[in-house]
Structure formats: structure tokens, C-alpha cells
Amino acid sequence: MEYGASSPSSAATARAWLEQKSSSLGLFIDGNFVCPEKRETLTVTDSTGGAVCSIICAEDEDISSCASSASGGFKAWSELSGHSRAKVLLRLASTLQRYTQCVSELCEVCQSPCSPAVLIRLAQYCSGWAQLRDTLLPEWAPRGVGAVVVSDDCFFYSIWIKVFPALAMGNAVVVVPGVKLAPAALLLAQLGVEAGLPAGALNVVIGDGTVGVRVAQNKHISFLTYSGKQQDGEVLAKQMAGWGLPVSLSLSLSAVCPFIIFESADIDSAVDGVIEAAFKKKKDWQWVLCVQESVLDSVVSRLKLRMTGMKCVPLVSESERGEVDAVVKEALQQGATLVQSCSPPASGSMFPPTVLCGLAPASSAAVTPPPGPLLPLLTFRSAAEGAALANRTPHGQAASIWTEDLTLALETAKSVSAGSIWVNSHSVTDPSLTQCGRRDSGNCTDGGREGLYQFLRPSLSPSLPRSTPSSLEYSTFGSGASTFMIPEACSVSSVSRSCSQFVGGKQCKADSGCSRAVQAPGGAVLAYCPDGGRKDVRNAVEAALKVHPGWLKKSPAARALSLFSLSDSLEKKKRDMAASIQAQTGLSVEEAEKEVELSISRLSDWAARCDKLRGEMPLLPQTGCALSASEPVGIVAVVLPDAKPLLSLVSLLGAAISTGNAVILVPSEKYPLPALDFIQVLQASDLPAGLVSVITGGKNQLTQALANHSEIQAIWYWGSKEGCQFLQYTCCSPLKRLWLHCEEEEDGDVGRYWSLSSPSLQEEMWREAVVWKSVWIPTA
Q1: Residue range of the domain that includes 45
Q2: Do the beta carbons of residue 85 and residue 77 sit within 8 Å?
Q3: What is residue 176's three-state secondary structure?
Q4: Residue 114 lies in a domain
Q5: Considering the domain boundaries, does residue 136 fall inside one?
Q6: Nearest C-alpha neighbor of 139 from the set 764, 778, 768, 767
């Protein structure tokens, strides 16, 4: 059956609302529309290029006023009970229901279509979490005022999947939408105040490409989340380096996602799904079609039949048309064949739905397909090859799997590295489904319970302090010569002990051949440790890559036994470890022994948690079922703190390996001896060789080496403000997950953080060690 023509919309209700505002929209600050004078304006256009309305651009004084209002709004909003916040969000859902037509028409006329029913469902879902936050998340507190920056190419829903959960957790929000998204965002902000949101709890400011950065740099902002293209997200993250602000990125607009058709699929349904996903006017992602060779001819013939008579799809601009033409020309030169619905026009910004058949997996058309109605087609032979082909993309945002064999579907879903996977369907969304980016598709988790934690922090955990960036030369950070801390009066020959680092399951010297002095608090040299560098990091990563797949295959129960073995090994050496801590830090014998006992207990805690990791089956409003489960991040580099050198080590090590990660540890530069003595504990355990590496040396030098290694997926860092700033700037491409702590700015007894047995602190460590995958399985 062919799709019928859609009925034209008059958009009369939306036009009437715009006329009330004289077709000139201001900013939404402190619960009111604000139209400051002598401001630049931007024009919102419809699909024909006609003017819809004008929007005022915010200047610095407007941003300052908005941030101050948001700070006051946060105080009023966060002090309400969870029940009161839930009632406001429920009233907002009812208000959206009342103004459904206006919201829908305004989104449509501004070329940012969104179903109001989806927003209503989201508001209702988040109201439930607002009600339950104090009960189910008692040790977590809202972060404060958040900046939600969304590019013009995103869907309107991309704003509210951030805003509603942030409000539900008690935060205030400043929304910075793209120009096309701005009118509908302003309307929803107005409806929020009508529903009972305190003035300042939800604000909207619009402007040029710098307004998002200027908002985020205001001292009242506590966190920043961005949705849009990968390149723009990288630029924004670099601009925010050094400001002491947690930054989460959702870069799904740039994501390339596999659409996998197995020979056991219902081919007709699969082809219909391809047509719907790949040739929409505004797509969620760029799709790559992966077809099993045995059904290739059947799929191509059905594609030709379904594409017959399909009209050209409008592109954003003629320059985008030029990109598509260039990719098609290159693919034809490489031997590809075209399947097109009609001939492309000689000029203009229109292009017909096109399938590129016979491409090599390394073709640029398959690796980075341009925007537009262009679908690369690749082939595979076996199921394992199909999963490997799907994992070639650097993004890992989503995947669609088509087969009538449920076992094959689940095995493939487990093998494909993507945050959202649909079986015999595509692009199904619901607020209860977790959406988690992988690799270059972002470091943000949205939806479900897991999506709430980006807007919360443990009440007892120190937060990254706000600051201004240091004058830092990123290209030379960590490249200076090592400082060898040898006292002038010390004779090298008088120190008998020379320590080794631990790489690939073996003790070894640094590749540089150099050593550093390990000093007692009084300045005496206790030992010499290797001065590691880039080559040592590379060796550690290579060892981790070899052993990590085998560690992943181990059952949670087997990982628990390995961690209990590590705990037992530590207990057998507790006297030696206590002596090491006492000699290195100058603590009393009692305090050193207490730290070792806590370390043994902490390892046992992580061992016990191995087979208690949570997964769930979300309850969905539509037919079908879904699975949501945590997976390890991959290779995690941990730059350890000075405080509690053994307890902090085992706490972070246990969190990482209990969830299935491989770990590279960089001990405290000031107190490395307990970590070096812990190597004997690692050797006595049954952990696989190479799973854990310990590299000593200069903190800045090793941080620089870790940040620039593409196979490291996450870095947990305790160190200087400059080190935090360097990591925020450098770890944007390739994108790494960062967990940063500035030891210089932490107040009070920092060692107390590690000694606490608060569930939220261990929960925080565990969440930093995992990513989430949701699998949607339709039943009808």
C-alpha cells in the first residue's frame, strides 16, 4: 500500500498565539516574556521560506538577569516537597493536553514537528519520579541551575527529555534552543508558569551561536547538557574546559546506525521499516543498511518496488545537495550501483531517495554518509559478521535488528555496541526506556531511572568547584621533563629498595629506564619507583585489550570469586600494607591498620555486588516488552588521589572490575608506595594478567598520555585544576567519559569521603563504571 497525502494544516491556532505577541517573541525570564530594547533579532521561517515571527537575541545583561532569576527559582522549587513538585508537573501535563492543537501547530509551522502526546507522557512520567525522589533516592540532591543547550537541527523532544527530568529532581533550568525550536519552547515555558512552576524555575533565552557558552559560564549555572551535532558538541566542550562545570553531550544527530536484515526476517516488513526510517524528511539518525547475502536480491527487488514513484526529499540547502552529489559520484567510481525513485533534478536542494548498493565497508559513503535521503547498503554472510559490521560505526547510538528468530535477535543485540536496539522495529521511544550514547554519540544517559542521575549528585560527595580557566598551553601540558625528588644529602646507594610497576601481569621497569624517589613525610627516601610515560601506557592498553574480552565473558559470579580472592590476598598481607601506609603517609599504626581493614571490607562489598547488578524490564504504555541492562564502559584509566592511598585505590578498582572493565591505575604521585606494594596482592589473586595495570610517574605526564590514547573509554581523575581543565579540553575527540575531582579545591577532611559507607557514594562509583543498553521487542 502507498502512503496517502497528508492533509494541509491551517495552523490557525498557532498563528493566533503569535499574533498575540505581535509576531515578535522575547526572552522568557522570571516567569514572564521580556522584550528588552535595542536587541538584534532573528527570523523564524516556515517550510516555504516565509517569515513566521521574529525572536530577540539575548545579550550579556539579559543572560545575567536570567541566571540570577534561575538561582532564585531553584531555591523556591527545590524547597518544595516531592509531592508538590509532582502536582505541578501533572498540572503541566493537563495544560499541555488542553493546548494540544496550539503546541502541535506551532511545532509544525516552525519545522520542528513533535507530537504533544509524547510531551504529555513525558511530563506524567517525570511527575512520578518527582513524587518518589525523596523515597527512592534519599541521599541524592539536585545539582542546582542547569543549562540545556539544543541545536536547531534537533527534534523538539530533545529539549524536554532533559528539562522535565531536571525539574522533577528539583533543579531549575535555563533552556537555550535553536531558532526553529524557540517559539514552541517559549510557549511551553509559558504553560509551565500557568501550571504552577515558580518564577525562574524555567527560563528560555535565544541568541547567536555563542549564547549557550555565555549562559553556561555564568556563576549561577551548575551543570550543562547539550544535544546536537558532534562537531558543535566538541567545540562547546572545549570552550567550557576549566570552568568547573559538569558537561554531558548527546550527539545523536551525527550518529550512523546499522539497520540489520537477517535471512530469517519478514522481508516485506523489514523493507517497509527501511523506507520509513531512511527516507523521512527529518531523520533521527543516519542509517546504514546491512543485509545478509542470501536475501540481498530479495531485499533490493522489494526496495526498487517500494521506491517507485517516491518524490524527491528537500534538503536543508544547496550546499548539502552538493555533499550528497559528491558522495554519490565517489561511490559510483568505486563500483557501487544506484537504486533511485526518480532522476535527481539538475539543480536545487531536492534529491530523490537513493540506495547505494555494492559498497565496501570502508567506503566514505558507509562510514560517514551525508545528510539526506541516501542509504548505503552493505552485505554480510554470518550473524557474527553482521554484528561485527554493525560495530564498525564509531557512534554506537542505536541499531535496528530484523529477524523472526528471537534467540538470534537477543544474541545480536548483546553483541552490538549500541545504547538503544529495536527488534523488528525502529525509533521507538518512551520516557521509561534508557537511551545511552556510546563512543562518539555522546556521554549522556537519558530516560528511565538511569537518566535522572545526570541531574543529581550524592549529598556527601564534593562537587567540582566553579572557577575560571587557567592560562594553559594544551599542546605542551605534561610534556615537561620529570622532576626527580632526590634530596641533596641522600646517597642513591643507601636506598636498598627499587620498586617496579605492573603491566600485562608482570612487574617491570619503566620504558624510559628512569626512576623517581619515593619520600617519607620527613623527606627521607624510602624507595625508587619507575618513571612511566606514553610507551608504558600503550603497553598497558594493549594488555587490557587482549584480556578484556575474556573478562567480559566471565559470569558475574566468577568475577565475584576473583574479587573475593583479591580481598583474601589483601587480608594475608594486611600487616605489610599497614606498614607501607604508615611509612609513606606518617599516619599512626592504628590509623594505617584501620585503612587496611576498611580496604578489605570495601573489596568484599564490590565482590558481593558483582552478581547484584541491576537490570530491569520497563513497563511500557504500548504493546511489547523491553530489557534494560548495564554494561561495562571498557578500559578505564584511574588517576588516584593522595588521600587514603590504599582505600581509594581498592574502592575505585573494585567498582571498575566488578562491572567488567579493565583498569589502568596511576598511583598518587605523592604517596605511591601503598599502590606499589598492592601489586603483590594483585599477583597473589586470580585476576587475569593484564586486567589491572599499575603505572607510576609524573601525574601530568601520565594524564597526558592517557587522554590521548583512543582505546581508553573513561578517565577518573583526582588532581590539579589544570589537569581537570586539560582533560575537559582534550577528551572531546575521541570522546571519553570523565569523572573529575580537583583535590586542590576540596575542603575539609578529604579522606573522610573514602571512609564513609554511604550507599550513594558506592552507587556513584558504580554508575561511573557502566553504560546502559535498552532492547525493545514488539509483541504485536
Answers
A1: 12-234
A2: yes
A3: strand
A4: yes
A5: yes
A6: 764
- Report the distance separating Cα 574 and Cα 577, nearest Å: 5
Q: Determine what percent of the chain is predicted with pLDDT higher than 90.
A: 60
Contact 585, 675 (CB under 8 A): no
Say whether both 220 and 79 belong to one domain: yes
CB atoms within 10 A of CB 7: 6
> Same domain, yes or no, for 303 and 351?
yes
The number of distinct structural domains making up the chain is: 3
Kind and range of the H or E element at 162? helix 157-168
- What sign results for the dihedral spanned by CA atoms 672, 673, 674, 676? positive
410 with 489, same domain? no
Same domain, residue pair 223 and 315: no
Is 492's pLDDT higher than 50?
no
- Are 119 and 160 a contacting pair, CB within 8 Å? yes
Question: Which one, of 429, 453, 432, lies nearest residue 443 by Cα?
Answer: 453
479-to-232, 499, 723 alpha-carbon distances in Å = 28, 24, 13
pLDDT in tens, 366-386: 888 888 888 899 999 999 999
Integer CA distances (angstroms), 726 to 17, 262, 270, 483, in order: 47, 45, 46, 20
Give the pTM. Answer: 0.91
In the block, residue with C-alpha cell 517559549: 186
The DSSP secondary structure of 95-113, one letter per residue, reads HHHHTHHHHHHHHHHTT--
Residues 225 and 335 in one domain: no
Cis peptide upstream of residue 177 (ω within 30 degrees of 0)? no
Locate 179 and state its grid cell: 531558532
Where does 310-453 have alpha helices with state H? 318-333, 364-367, 383-390, 406-415
Give the count of alpha carbons within 13 A of 230, CB side only.
20
Residue in the structure block whose three cell numbers are 592504628: 590
What pLDDT, on a 0 to 100 scale, did the predictor assign at position 2? Answer: 41
Residue 318 falls within a domain, yes or no? yes
Contact 723, 637 (CB under 8 A): no
Stated as kind and residue range, the H or E segment containing 239 is helix 230-239
**Cell 558483582 sits at which residue?**
610
User: In this predicted model, what pLDDT tens digit does every residue of 21-43 receive, in sequence order?
Assistant: 888 899 999 999 999 888 899 89
* pLDDT value for 561: 94
What letter represents residue 164's amino acid? Answer: F
The answer to whether the beta carbons of residues 397 and 427 sit under 8 Å apart is: no
Retrieve residue 454's grid coordinates.
545526570
* Average pLDDT value over all residues in the chain: 89
Cell of 404: 523472526
pLDDT at 285 over 60: yes
Maximum distance among all alpha carbons in the chain? 90
**Using CA atoms, how far apart are residues 67 and 221, in angstroms rounded to an integer?**
7
Residue 729, SS3? helix
Q: Quick check: 548 pLDDT over 50?
A: yes
Cβ proximity of 166 and 173 under 8 Å: yes
